[in-house]
Amino acid sequence: MQAFKDAQAGYLNMELLRFTTAGSVDDGKSTLIGRLLYDSKAIFEDQLEAIEKASINRGEQHVNLALLTDGLRAEREQGITIDVAYRYFATPKRKFIIADTPGHIQYTRNMVTGASTANAAITLVDARNGIVEQTLRHAYIASLLQIPHLIICVNKMDLMDYKEEVFEEIRLNFENIASKLDIKDIRFVPISALKGDNVVERSKNMAWYDGPTLMYLLENLHISSDRDFTDPRFPVQYIIRPQSDEYHDFRGYAGRIAGGIFKTGDNVTVLPSGLTSKIKSIETMKGSLDLAFPPQSVTLTLEDDIDISRGDMIVKENNLTQVGQDITMMICWLNEKPLQPGIKYHLKHTTKDVKCIVKEIHYKMNINNLEKNFEDKDIGLNEIAQVTIRTTQPLCYDSYRKNRTTGSLILIEEGTNETVCAGMII
Q1: Does domain 13-220 have CATH number 3.40.50.300?
Q2: Is the Cβ–Cβ distance between 425 and 329 less than 8 Å?
Q3: Less CB within 10 Å around the terminal CB: N or C of the chain?
Q4: Beta carbons within 10 angstroms of residue 249's beta carbon
Q5: 193-223 pLDDT, tens digit each
Q6: 252-294 per-position pLDDT tens digit
Q7: Contacts 24+ apart (CB under 8 A), 284-288
Q8: Residue 183 has pLDDT above 70, yes or no
Q9: What is the CATH number of domain 322-425?
Q10: Which CATH architecture is the domain 233-316 placed in?
Q11: Where are the domains of the chain?
């Protein structure tokens, strides 16, 4: 076990922290990211010169740091974020991927896409307006996607004279809502993205705030336990048969570990067949391993020659997934064509490809007030609902709360090959 801890520590030191930003229109998401990049010295001089010139051309008094992320022409013309803008930067402590997601309700699907792999979500609240419907919507989506860490940044504190009571009122209002959310870790930071208060450097204007800056939080969030190291899950992606003289009898099962720890000698079960064997070796391009854990990509060899195909799941014999064809899940509908119960959709789950139909729509979620609507069963673009599907073949799955990889799936329209739905299994 010590070997695992040492290996895990070495691997996770290289791991990225993925975080997403969300908020209502004009709450300052893009400005905040620009401030993070600028104050952490993560942009080049020519980039800074370019946005300085662009700011002058637009007649703005200050350097518009939002231009670092609002890269599309349509975004700059409208002054809003439309697409998901990904940015990469690093500090001496950690590497980061930022997904700057839109605030508009019509771009909910973009937010779901950007937040689906995030370790943390930053939700901005305008200090002048407090908690609004879109704050609830973004917090609910973060909860739905099981993002472990939520940071509420109360922005534009400079416009409210940096008053402590403004921040405290917003914090208390959100804490009253938080009981309806399934988020483990919620933090609150008063900031001014425009002025830089409490973003990277501590604010001299808010001496009453004794908590960490946003950058300190991002650098020190504990993310090593965000992955599931308890339940071993290995979706088989490819069967390796070199058929060469050197590896004449080699038969390996390649894939990416989705959960738990696999060790040489472990007794395993292959699902959905239920066949059992023992791990003979764990192979990588750099040689054999004694153990492996997520998100490593490895090749497993087994002591028994049994029938395994792409889409099968290798698990520990005493720790099985659920196996079934009737699956209840929360969905976010991503397509302009509405959901049609009874119509065949193509389904992708880990490495498994099957067909399915939507068997039943249970309710639609009003994510502006967190209430369930059992009457309206018409599910359109950007709407969230609970449904049950029936698949043509059994799936090996966990709840999304337990494992974000084995608990998620997408639906694809057969005719157009467009992804129409993201699903989180209950």
Answers
A1: yes
A2: yes
A3: N
A4: 8
A5: 889 999 999 999 999 999 999 999 999 998 8
A6: 999 999 999 999 999 999 999 999 999 999 999 999 999 999 9
A7: none
A8: yes
A9: 2.40.30.10
A10: Beta Barrel (2.40)
A11: 13-220, 233-316, 322-425
